[in-house]
Design brief:
The chain is α+β, with helices and mostly antiparallel strands. It folds into 2 domains: about 280 residues, Butyryl-CoA Dehydrogenase, subunit A, domain 2 (Beta Barrel); about 140 residues, Butyryl-CoA Dehydrogenase, subunit A, domain 3, CATH 1.20.140.10. A 6-stranded mixed sheet has the order 2-1-10-11-7-6, with no helix packed on it. The chain has a 4-stranded mixed sheet with strand order 5-8-9-12. It has a two-stranded antiparallel sheet with strand order 3-4. The longest helix has 30 residues. Helix 12 runs antiparallel to helix 13 and helix 13 packs antiparallel against helix 16. The termini are far apart. It contains 18 helices and 14 strands. It comes from Paenibacillus barengoltzii G22. This is 4-hydroxyphenylacetate 3-monooxygenase, oxygenase component. Keywords: FAD, Flavoprotein, Monooxygenase, Oxidoreductase. GO terms for molecular function: monooxygenase activity; oxidoreductase activity, acting on the CH-CH group of donors.
Length: about 475
């Protein structure tokens, strides 16, 4: 089966009968009709339509090595620097549609699965069945253009409720081994797009390390359809609205975050990628170069989002007749410099990559990690500038419907800009409000701040990337003519 289009994506999501709860009620309508999900579903349908356009075929897809059908290029394991650039160009097209606001766009999860696939040999050495399962699953997702989400992070109580091998532990774990597969119970947070996908990849960090060769019930990786028996999704409050005039961002790009609960879910044996060996989790991430491959996709999203911010800030400044003010120019040129920095880091990651022993080309991790450290502050600064430039205009903005009421003449007279009609001016500031003052922008900012881990985790990752630190130290010792250690 080749790549899917938007209509097929919507049909597949609507066929799902997931156990999904929103605001205390079970969702029993097709998700493409539900106000919390339909805007995002329409956006992703447009993305899938894009990959089917004939003039983009060679940019968005490649020929499957097994079926000779056209499959999504985000599944391609790069074996050359050119392959990495091809993957980036594909992601740029999708990022141009969502402007960097979709953290779990399909190419993100496809890249994550691809990264694990490149480490299949690791699993095959541990147990051939596991490596075979992962290879087969990767090919299945590639050949059927499966939309994926993932569940990695567990609630805090999972670590605080005692060792995983104790009965009172609330950690996600295998509670029973059956001939058909593993029975899993536990909960995960932040399964972003859990309801609007077809399958969910589950790969948590083991809650406790048992060591001494013991079988760790919290050490596992698997993938299952998101509507299998025993899975429940509980949604956070949605920030989505239908009007693209009143809510231009959340009406299109609101990704639902969910808590996903596994209550004695039977995971078939052929969907298990490892179990019991706690060291395999870290090795799969490390030897699959997860952070490098996914970081490359993320950086393309960062760039698209920064470009959107710069465009918005320029339009806001012109609307406020402030585009030539020194304070504005000083502020926006700092963001412009950061954009160039992000682009340069991406080039460095692509050109300074290395080949693995299996022949895959991996982007350099250090530039990508540096971008991950810098972007949250850039994001927060951009939102601050939006609030500053917009001033009080950020707040007093009527609905689009008001322009079709008896008050239309008042609005057109008193809310017009220097050179723009009132309705256009209000549309601009409603966009600014969603980012600078609304719930959608607040969620985006928090999401970006902790997208790839907390500050300590990312700092440790950055420090671990620097293999030249000893050389830098030696320069100081030599300069001061000290012996050092």
């Amino acid at each position: 089966m080749p790549i899917k289009n938007g209509k097929q994506y919507i049909e597949r999501i609507n066929r799902k009968r997931i156990r999904l709860w929103y605001n205390g009620e079970r969702v029993n309508v097709p998700l493409s009709e539900h106000p919390a999900f339909r805007g995002l579903i329409r956006t992703q349908a447009a993305m899938y339509d894009k990959q089917c356009e004939e003039d983009l075929r060679d940019i968005m897809t490649y020929v499957s090595p097994t079926s000779e059908e056209r499959v999504g290029l985000s599944f391609l394991p790069p074996t050359t620097p050119d392959d990495l650039v091809r993957r980036r160009r594909m992601s740029e097209i999708w990022a141009g549609l969502h402007h960097g606001f979709l953290g779990r766009s399909p190419d993100y999860m496809n890249t994550a699965l691809m990264s694990f696939y490149t480490a299949c040999s690791l699993l095959e050495a541990a147990m051939p069945e596991y490596g075979r399962n992962l290879r087969t699953y990767y090919e299945y997702c590639r050949e059927h253009d499966i939309t994926l989400s993932h569940a990695f992070v567990q609630p805090m109580i999972s670590k605080m409720s005692g060792p995983v091998d104790h009965e009172e532990s609330l950690a996600a774990k295998v509670v029973e081994i059956q001939p058909e597969g593993l029975v899993v119970s536990g909960a995960f947070l932040m399964a972003t797009q859990g309801p609007t996908c077809e399958e969910i990849l589950v790969l948590p960090t083991p809650t406790f390390m048992l060591g001494d060769g013991q079988v760790n019930p919290s050490a596992f990786a698997f993938a299952v359809p998101n509507d299998v028996e025993g899975i429940t999704f509980i949604c956070r409050e949605s920030h989505a609205f239908d009007s693209s005039y009143d809510h231009p961002l959340s009406s299109r790009f609101e990704e639902m975050d969910t808590m996903v609960i596994f209550d004695r879910v039977l995971v078939p044996r052929d969907r298990v990628f490892f179990f019991g060996k706690e060291e395999l989790c870290d090795r799969l991430f490390r030897e699959g170069h997860f952070h490098a491959y996914v970081g490359h996709q993320i950086l393309t999203r960062y760039i698209a989002k920064t470009e959107f911010f710069l465009g918005l800030l320029q339009v806001l400044a012109e609307e406020q007749n402030a585009d030539s003010e020194p304070t504005f120019l000083h502020s926006i040129t700092k963001l412009m410099a950061m954009l160039e920095n992000l682009k340069a880091l991406r080039v460095a990651a692509e050109t300074d990559g290395t080949f693995t022993s299996s022949g895959y080309y991996v982007p350099a991790l250090a530039p990508l990690t540096a971008a991950g450290i810098q972007f949250p502050d850039l994001h927060e600064e951009a939102l601050r500038l939006i609030r500053t430039i917009s001033a009080s205009q950020l707040i007093m903005n009527p609905f689009g419907a008001d322009f079709f009421s008896e008050n239309e003449a008042y609005l057109n007279a008193y809310l017009q800009g220097i050179s723009s009609p009132a309705k256009d001016r209000i549309a601009l500031f409603r966009l600014a409000w969603e980012l600078g003052g609304g719930a959608f922008g607040g969620r985006q900012n928090q999401f970006e701040r902790f997208f790839f881990g907390n500050g300590k985790t990312i700092a440790n990752r950055m420090y671990g990337c620097c293999e030249s630190m000893e050389q830098y130290k030696s320069r100081i010792y030599q300069f001061l003519e000290l012996k050092g250690e």
